[in-house]
Every structure is written in structure tokens, then in C-alpha cells.
Amino acid sequence: MTLSTKLSALTLVLGAAFSGSAFATTNVWDSATPWGSATLTDFAAWDNFGGTTDNSADYGSGGTVRETSGTSFVTSGGNIYSFATATSFVSTLVSSATTGFFDVYMRIGTLGTLANTTATLNGVAATSTLAFHEDQGTVMGGATAEQEQYWLWSNVAASSLYTFAFNSTTSSMSLDQLALATVARPSAPIATSPVPEPETYGMMAAGLGLIGFMGRRRSKNRYNLA
């Protein structure tokens, strides 16, 4: 058996371990939704992946996810496992909204080695917020854990298609869950001051004149000691 074959076999064993119940309960979020109780405009989510390209979300609609680089396969638990090298992914979310501004979320759950904390939305980078972490020790010199993290892009102009890109930092990351969502931003009217009536201007002028007269009298009383 060659060295490369041995490494491939070892990686396969590690992949099976990371996707098994010995490490975590798969397909279950351990953290609260990052958007709380907000009403979602667009939504798509996966608990089980049907392939390294999956155009049918388990919940919601209009979402896709696919591997764009690296080598991965779908485990028996429905996870996408990064085999031998780091893996990059692109996911998309179709929207019917054509106007307004939105908070846009991407949420992932992973097992094994860690995901990169930087992801992009339509080319704009953001750093993730860690929502759940359960350390699984060090394997082959790399940190492993069950993790849930999310990215938030705030005040994003409406788009017919949101395109997200994210990746693992190295091999042996198991993508367990993925969710994409948008929340409409409130649009409050701009506050304006009412225009004063002409008689109001007259009253304001009289008042200012009186204030000026009183001020001069106080100055005389303060400084004229005679």
C-alpha cells in the first residue's frame, strides 16, 4: 500500500468518525436562530444534503449549494465531507424583492476541522459570529470541533439573487447544516419640522427683543457699582 493510499484511507476513517454520533447529534441546531423572531422575507435551509451539488432545500425554496473546489462526498448522515483537501462552496438564494434594504444571513453547522471565519455575499466579505462550539480535540495536528456560526450583512440593497461563498480551512470538515435568510429593514419616514405661520415669526422676533433688553439690564446691574 502506497503512502498516498494510506493517507486517503485514514482521511476516510476520520470522515466517518466526524460525521457519526460519537461527536455530535447531526441535523440539529444547538444555538438560537441569529435573526430571532423576525419575519423572514426569503429563506432556504438544508439539514441533509443530497449531493455535493444540491438544488433542493429541505426548508424554504430558491436555494442552491455546490462544491466549487476541492474533493468532497456526502456521508451516510447527509453531510458534505471535505476529503483530502480544503473545500470551497457557493450557495445562492433567489429573492422576489426588488426594492428596499435587508439584513442577510448565512448560518452553518460543521463537524471536524473548522470552517474559515470569512465568507462573502455578492463579493462583500464579512466575519462570522460563533454561536456554538464543542471542542473535539486535536486530530493530525489540527483543531476539531462541532461548531455553529453565522454571518450577517446589514442594510443590503434588494437583489434578485444573493450569492454566498465560504470554505473549510483544510480537509476533514463535515458540513452538517446550512441556512440562508433575509429580513426586511424597517423604513421609517424622515421627520420634518412644520413651517411656522407668519404670526409665529412676529412673536419670535418680539420675544428675542425682550430677551436682549433683559440681558442688557442684567449686565448694567452686574458691572455698574455706582
Question: TL;DR?
Answer:
By secondary structure, the chain is α+β, with helices and mostly antiparallel strands.
Set down the secondary structure blueprint.
Layout: H1 3-18, E1 42-46, E2 53-54, E3 59-60, E4 63-69, E5 72-74, E6 80-82, E7 88-94, E8 101-112, E9 118-121, E10 124-127, E11 129-139, E12 142-157, E13 161-167, E14 173-184, H2 198-223
Report the end-to-end length measured between terminal Cα atoms: 113 Å
In helices, the fraction of residues equals 10-25%
Q: Which percent range describes the beta-strand content?
A: 35-45%
Structural class category:
alpha+beta
Low-confidence stretches: 1-23, 189-193, 210-226
User: How many beta-strand runs?
Assistant: 14
- Helix-strand sequence: HEEEEEEEEEEEEEEH
